[in-house]
C-alpha cells in the first residue's frame, strides 16, 4: 500500500486514515486480493464509522461479505 504511514494505526468510529487502513486490511484478508480490497474499502470504511471506538466488536468474514454484497 503506497499511502501507508508507519505511524498510522487501525482505527474505527469515524472516517479517516486509520479506518481506511483497517477497511482495506479487513477486505484484503477476507478475500485475499488487494484489488478487491481497494474496490470495496469505501463501503467497509462507512461500516466501521458506525462502530463505537470504546466498545469491543467482532466482524466475521461472512458478515463482511454480506455487507459488501448489499452495500458495496
What can you tell me about this protein's structure?
Pfam families: DUF6166. InterPro entries: DUF6166. With 72 residues, this protein is mainly alpha-helical. It has a domain at 16-53. The protein has three helices and no strands. It has helices at 17-31, 34-49, 61-71. Helix 1 (17-31) crosses helix 2 and helix 2 (34-49) packs across helix 3 (61-71). The two termini are 21 Å apart. The mean pLDDT is 88.
Topology summary:
Elements: H1 17-31, H2 34-49, H3 61-71
Helix pairs in contact: 1-2, 2-3
Keyword list:
72 residues, mainly alpha, 3 helices
Task: Describe what is shown at a glance.
By secondary structure, the chain is mainly alpha-helical. It has a domain of 38 residues.
The residue ranges in which pLDDT falls below 50 over 5 or more consecutive positions are none
Largest sheet: none
The number of strands is: 0
Order of helices and strands: HHH
Structural class: mainly alpha
Q: In whole angstroms, how far apart are the ends?
A: 21 Å
Number of helices: 3
Helix content: 55-70%
**Approximately how much beta-strand content do the residues carry?**
under 5%
